[in-house]
From TrEMBL, chain A:
<feature type="domain" description="ABC transmembrane type-1">
    <location>
        <begin position="65"/>
        <end position="272"/>
    </location>
</feature>
<keyword id="KW-0813">Transport</keyword>
<dbReference type="InterPro" id="IPR035906">
    <property type="entry name" value="MetI-like_sf"/>
</dbReference>
<dbReference type="Pfam" id="PF00528">
    <property type="entry name" value="BPD_transp_1"/>
</dbReference>
<protein>
    <submittedName>
        <fullName>ABC transporter permease</fullName>
    </submittedName>
</protein>
<keyword id="KW-0472">Membrane</keyword>
<feature type="transmembrane region" description="Helical">
    <location>
        <begin position="251"/>
        <end position="273"/>
    </location>
</feature>
<feature type="transmembrane region" description="Helical">
    <location>
        <begin position="7"/>
        <end position="26"/>
    </location>
</feature>
<dbReference type="InterPro" id="IPR000515">
    <property type="entry name" value="MetI-like"/>
</dbReference>
UniProtKB/TrEMBL annotation, chain B:
<keyword id="KW-0547">Nucleotide-binding</keyword>
<dbReference type="InterPro" id="IPR017871">
    <property type="entry name" value="ABC_transporter-like_CS"/>
</dbReference>
<dbReference type="GO" id="GO:0016887">
    <property type="term" value="F:ATP hydrolysis activity"/>
</dbReference>
<protein>
    <submittedName>
        <fullName>ABC transporter ATP-binding protein</fullName>
    </submittedName>
</protein>
<dbReference type="InterPro" id="IPR013611">
    <property type="entry name" value="Transp-assoc_OB_typ2"/>
</dbReference>
<dbReference type="InterPro" id="IPR008995">
    <property type="entry name" value="Mo/tungstate-bd_C_term_dom"/>
</dbReference>
<dbReference type="GO" id="GO:0005524">
    <property type="term" value="F:ATP binding"/>
</dbReference>
<comment type="similarity">
    <text>Belongs to the ABC transporter superfamily.</text>
</comment>
<feature type="domain" description="ABC transporter">
    <location>
        <begin position="7"/>
        <end position="237"/>
    </location>
</feature>
């Protein structure tokens, strides 16, 4: 390569390198270093694994993480089940303008910030909210019903926030399925269920994997939704990180939790890929 | 309907909006027959096939397979299997799984399905290909998988929608013969659609010529070629000369046509007056160096060779002839004094009245 070319290439890649370096790698290296400094006395820190041990010895922490992980898996599965028929409709039934409209409709909630969206759900679900009011009006409930501050509300909010990120990769994957392949599935005697299980789902697998990873990672790392909709029952792992950084001012502990969140959720994604016999490579290639 | 038919269509019509893609079509296919539907692109062949397979419902009419009406029967319950234009192999499955798919859908056990798939692969000349991905096959091999996938189910009827369209010429010629052999081996009824008249002529027992949603004529390849019933069939099936003119006189099926450019032609047909279309096959045009040799023919002309279209056994000559608005096409003689004829040479040409079909225009 000529030097001029090399310079051009470098300049072209500079934004990407800066982005990766400044915004992703650098802070994480900082956090990683920070997480290994443990407090031995006020304002006195030394190198050690104490912050990590704290996670495993204090039940509140690892239980909160386990709860976060399990609920995130549930949210991912529910999102997938809900998104599949919607994506199917967008990809295979809707045509032209209707298709564009439907995708826009999915996108619309993301016009407002997550905080405002979640507050919207609070309006609906609170004791004096519309749903509670309707339940009383129709006689299904005799007194105001509090629908907020429970796991159901948290899952609802998280599924709502994740739906788009599942629908788009799914619709993408389903779109590339040739209609005649599906017809051949029926023609050779397959029932709807057989065609779905043996043809449609395997074809959509890269989209399913991509969507599930995105939704799972977004959910595990979410903060506003579990805090607002779950209240003090939310118990999301990000709240623990927040508490360490902001409330207790124990940055090294918070940093260790941050690293643990990254590692453990990555491990869950890896296990999920192994279980479904998918590889990240094929997913990225086909998604 | 008679016991020996596998497929009967009765007055089948398919309307898309106001456009009739298939218009009042009636035909029967006998057991074990190789039946082709031949027509130009867009004439409604695929629509017709999709109605038989169960992917479209006819607007009116009845489709019967072995005397059972198929109206309202879903595609996965019909004893018909289709080889799609795009083949539509399952890319997420191996070759063996593709073939076993239909069997497992029917509840055949895994082991037996695999064994039958393996045997079927052997029969179509793909022994040992069971584990391959379908994407790792050549065009001809994919073709055979698509057909084997249907045949393994022993259907009453196999539908083939232009299955050779995607192949290159050489392979297509080869697959034509192979398809015909497979059909004979398995003794299965084939309904084959194509826009390629040579495919239809070579393989079929009977051909239906379709145009704008209607059947123009149904008959054996020879019948269609030698006795076309309509001008469309005459020009669509095989090479032909086609001239437009007016009927000068007609009696008892013998018709004299006057071309606008002056030529008088004698042929046969049912037309008695008005505008007429005349058709003569290139191979029916006799050529000679002197006029005496053609003296027995009612149509005799003299012309000049304007082009030699050499294509081996299918070579032809274009002969600029006074009285005709376009050159007469004749087969290039393969032997004799005229075999070496060159552009610009004069030649005498003629044909019998029987060789010229005249239709009302
Ligand atoms: N689903 C459909 N909706 C509207 N028109 C259609 C549909 N399918 C086919 N057609 C029309 O019907 C006609 C015949 O199409 P087709 O059966 O595919 O022809 P062929 O297979 O002979 O080329 C075409 O004019 C086509 O545009
Ligand atoms: Mg077609």
């Amino acid at each position: 390569m000529k030097p001029a070319h090399r310079l051009t290439l470098f300049l072209l890649m500079a934004p990407a390198i800066l982005w990766l370096g400044l915004l992703i790698i650098l802070p994480h290296v900082e956090i990683l270093i920070l997480s290994f400094s443990q407090r031995v006395a006020p304002r006195v820190y030394e190198f050690g694994f104490g912050n990590y041990l704290e996670f495993f010895t204090e039940p509140l922490y690892w239980r909160t993480f386990a709860r976060t992980a399990i609920m995130s898996i549930m949210v991912t599965v529910i999102t997938l089940v809900l998104a599949f028929p919607i994506a199917m409709y967008i990809a295979r039934v809707a045509q032209g303008r209707v298709k564009a409209m439907l995708l826009l409709l999915c996108l619309l909630p993301f016009w407002v910030s997550e905080l405002v969206r979640t507050l919207g759900w609070m309006m609906l679900l609170r004791e004096t909210g519309i749903i509670s009011y309707l339940l009383r009006m129709t006689g299904l409930a005799s007194q105001p019903v509090e629908l907020l501050y429970n796991d159901g509300a948290v899952i609802l909010g998280l599924v709502y926030g994740g739906l788009l990120f599942m629908i788009v990769p799914l619709a993408n994957a389903l779109e590339s399925l040739e209609p005649s392949v599906v017809e051949a599935g029926f023609d050779l005697g397959g029932s709807r269920w057989t065609v779905l299980r043996r043809i449609v789902i395997p074809h959509a697998m890269p989209g399913i994997v991509a969507g599930s990873i995105i939704v799972f990672m977004l959910t595990v790392g979410n903060f506003a939704t579990p805090v607002l909709l779950g209240g003090k029952n939310g118990l999301w792992f990000t709240e623990q990180i927040y508490a360490q950084f902001i409330t207790r001012f124990n940055w090294p502990q918070g940093a260790a939790f941050g690293i643990l969140l990254l590692l453990l959720s990555s491990a869950i994604v890896w296990a999920g890929l192994r279980l479904t016999r998918q590889s990240l490579g094929t997913t990225l290639r086909q998604a | 309907m008679s016991q020996s038919t596998d497929l009967d269509l009765v007055n089948v019509t398919k309307q898309f909006g106001t456009h009739a893609a298939v218009n009042n079509v009636t035909f029967s296919v006998a057991r074990g027959e190789f039946f082709s539907i031949l027509g130009p692109s867009g004439c409604g062949k695929t629509t017709l096939m999709r109605m038989i397979a169960g992917f479209e419902n006819p607007t009116s009419g009845d489709i019967r397979i072995r005397d059972k009406s198929m109206i309202g029967v879903p595609a996965n319950r019909r004893p018909v299997n289709m080889v799609f234009q795009s083949l539509a192999l399952f890319p997420m499955m191996s070759v063996g799984e593709n073939i076993a798919y239909g069997l497992t859908c029917r509840g055949v056990g895994r082991a037996e399905a695999d064994e039958r798939a393996t045997r079927m692969l052997e029969r179509v000349g793909l022994k040992g290909f069971g584990e391959r991905r379908v994407t790792a096959l050549s065009g001809g091999q994919r073709q055979r998988v698509a057909i084997a996938r249907c045949l393994v189910l022993e259907p009453t009827l196999v539908l083939l929608d232009e299955p050779l369209g995607a192949l290159d010429l050489k392979l297509r010629e080869h697959m034509k013969i192979e398809l015909k052999q497979l059909q004979g081996q398995f003794n299965t009824t084939f309904a084959y659609i194509t826009h390629d008249q040579s495919e239809a002529l070579v393989m079929s027992d009977r051909i239906a010529v379709m145009n704008q949603g209607r059947f123009e004529q149904v008959g054996s390849p020879r019948e269609l070629y030698h006795n076309p019933a309509t001008p469309f069939v005459a020009s669509f099936v095989g090479e032909t000369n086609r001239w437009q003119g007016d009927v000068a006189s007609a009696s008892n099926g013998a018709v004299t046509v006057r071309l606008s450019t002056g030529g008088m032609l004698h042929g046969r047909g049912g037309v008695s007056q008005g505008a007429a279309l005349s058709f003569v096959r290139p191979e029916a045009v006799a050529l000679a160096q002197d006029a005496a040799a053609l003296s027995s023919l009612p149509n005799r002309f003299e012309g000049r060779v304007s082009a030699v279209l050499f294509d081996g056994a299918a070579s032809s000559l274009l002969i600029e002839t006074p009285g005709f608005d376009q050159p007469v096409r004749a087969v290039l003689p393969q032997a004799g004094p005229l075999a070496g004829i060159e552009v610009g040479e004069a030649v005498h040409l003629g044909w019998t009245a029987d060789a010229m079909k005249v239709f009302a225009a």
